[in-house]
Amino acid sequence: MSGLRSFLARRLLLGALQTVAVVLLVFALTEALPGDAAVALAGDQPDPARIAAIRETMHLDRPTHERLADWATGLLHGDLGTSLTSGRPVGQYIADGFGPTLLLATLTVALLVPIGFGLGVLAARHEGRLADRLISSATLAVYAVPEFALGVLLVTVLALQLGWLPPTAVGYGTDLLGHPAALVLPVLVLLSRPVCSLSRLVRAGMIDALASPYVAQARRYGISGTRIRYAHALPNALAPAAQQLARTIDWLLCGVIVVEALYVIPGLGTVLLNAVAERDVPVVQGLAVVFGVLTVVLNLGADLVAHGLAPRAGAAA
Amino acid sequence: MTKPWTARFALGISVVAVPLVLALLGPLLVGEPGARTASFTVGDGHWLGTDFVGRDVWQQVLHGGRPVVLTALAATTLSYLVALPVGLVGALTHRRWLEELLMRPLDVLLAVPSLLLILLAATVLSPGPVGLALLVALVNVPDAARLVRAAATEAAARPAVEALRMQGETWWSMAVGYVGRSMLRTLAADAGTRLTGVLYLVATAAFLGVGVAPDAADWAVMVDRNRTGLSVQPWAVAVPALLIVALTMGTNLLFDAALANNRRSDRGRGRGTKLPDATRTAHNPAGSEARP
């Protein structure tokens, strides 16, 4: 069991290092501003009062290491700083946008897992035949398409030409659950890329596993095909797929930003894009830390699950 | 050269042909820009109508493919220009600290979602097209360097390298002459995947307004800016969106078909099939999407 323990220790250490690095990277953002950060951030309204206010809010008159220490301690206490444009705490921005994004992500993951695994197992069972060729070609094609292009075409056809669904979520605010029709297109678009990659991965893993000696041996024992598929082959096919699920989180995050912009959903992605447009650095930093740490933690979790499912695969930490 | 392969190859070529020809030759075919008219009109001498500031949509479409394709190609090339030396040195050096110094920071960078990194940089730097290419290249470097290192480590462990070393070959001729050459196939496979991913990132960033002027002639920008008139003038959005879909889909289908062909000829010769698999499994969990 020492192998497992050292793997755990190494993987946890890497996770901790990545978290620290994310925090440092995000902090370095203000240092990357050319010239006087306060003047650069004031941008279009360079009046002295605003510059002074920015300098005050971001404590720019203090040395870098003190600001880093302050910011990091604030993060540990859940204090993410204050917005430059509105003076509201960043935590409040995140709390406002959290609901819609969480709803979108939960719905997407809840649908992604059964659809992705289902399609993958289906294709692997019919390897080389029509069903497999159709699924493989379709997933390969859709997987490369940017969400915004797919989304806007779906809106044009399904919402504007056929009138089946509302084109955007404008006017529904954060009460999206009350208007399920407005959620169909965003979730569909969010699913498009992850479903493709996941099902391709499950298919490849299942084909490998079904061709392995232990499956042949199980067949010789006369174990039923269903039991071999789901009790013996699938867990081994799951290990690479579990890691892909974490990669999918990265995509979901990119996807959420695009989809929220496209369908005008007031979630974290919209908050981030607005902050980027207004160069509201503290809000961008706060969101980046939340997103970054979330990605690190989910990747860590997926690696541990993958390791538990198939220790032989030896996830490289 | 069996039938399904040629069919898929042909499909890929025919899907990618229209957007690629438009992107590369479009700017040469376009005439003088006409006077601006009312925005979001249909017909009236404009084949695809007018856009949000009253420009001819067809002319914008002819202009708008080149930035997407060129930025993506530049970013892919740039990421390899950095990743190749880093990965090769990381794999072939005997100094452990140098390897750690080169590769560990990349592990850390892999943890940050790519679009987030681009948006972060865009907040403070307001990049132009060149800046966007650099950013997209940067977020691709960690993954590409890891792949190069994995492929090079495998090639460097072969007996042939030991033989070369005993013959007193220089480090350079071993690294470039033998190891570099044996990695070409893996790199070609990866380049296809990477170009698809880069096209995705470049188009998505442009759609979100990173690295482009707000009224730029760029398919992704056209989709974004003309969305307001979607119900009156859908062509200004649908045509560039379809072209982007065809471009990304076709690129992916084409490279996959070419790789399937590669794999098949590999199997025919009975060697080399192991390399891509070995590099994939040596891949980081957060590495690029596996291509089964």
Automatic annotation (TrEMBL), chain A:
Domain ABC transmembrane type-1 per the UniProt entry, residue ranges: 98-306
Statement: the UniProt record of this protein carries the keyword Nucleotide-binding: no
Membrane topology: Multi-pass membrane protein
Subcellular location per the Swiss-Prot or TrEMBL entry: Cell membrane
PROSITE patterns named in the record: ABC_TM1 (PS50928)
SUPFAM superfamilies, per database record: MetI-like
Naturally occurring in which organism (per UniProt): Streptomyces spongiae
Major site of localization recorded for this protein: membrane
Any one annotated GO CC term: plasma membrane
Transmembrane segments: 102-122, 134-164, 176-196, 251-277, 283-302
Superkingdom of the organism of origin: Bacteria
Pfam families assigned: BPD_transp_1 (PF00528), BPD_transp_1_N (PF19300)
Similarity comment: family membership: Belongs to the binding-protein-dependent transport system permease family.
Swiss-Prot/TrEMBL keywords: Cell membrane, Membrane, Transmembrane, Transmembrane helix, Transport
Signal peptide bounds: none
Protein name: ABC transporter permease
Any one of the GO BP annotations: transmembrane transport
UniProtKB/TrEMBL annotation, chain B:
Topology within the bilayer: Multi-pass membrane protein
InterPro entries to which the protein is assigned, alphabetical: BP-dependent_transpt_permease (IPR050366), MetI-like (IPR000515), MetI-like_sf (IPR035906)
Transmembrane portions of the chain: 9-30, 191-212, 232-255
Pfam families in the cross-refs: BPD_transp_1
GO cellular component annotations of the record: plasma membrane
Keywords: Cell membrane, Membrane, Transmembrane, Transmembrane helix, Transport
Single GO biological process annotation from the record: transmembrane transport
The keyword Cell membrane belongs to this UniProt entry's keyword annotation: yes
Region (Disordered): 265-292
Primary location: membrane
Alphabetized SUPFAM superfamilies for the sequence: MetI-like (SSF161098)
Subcellular location(s) of the protein: Cell membrane
ABC transmembrane type-1 domain mapped to chain residues: 69-255
Family, as annotated: Belongs to the binding-protein-dependent transport system permease family.
Protein's name according to its UniProt entry: ABC transporter permease
Gene source species: Streptomyces spongiae
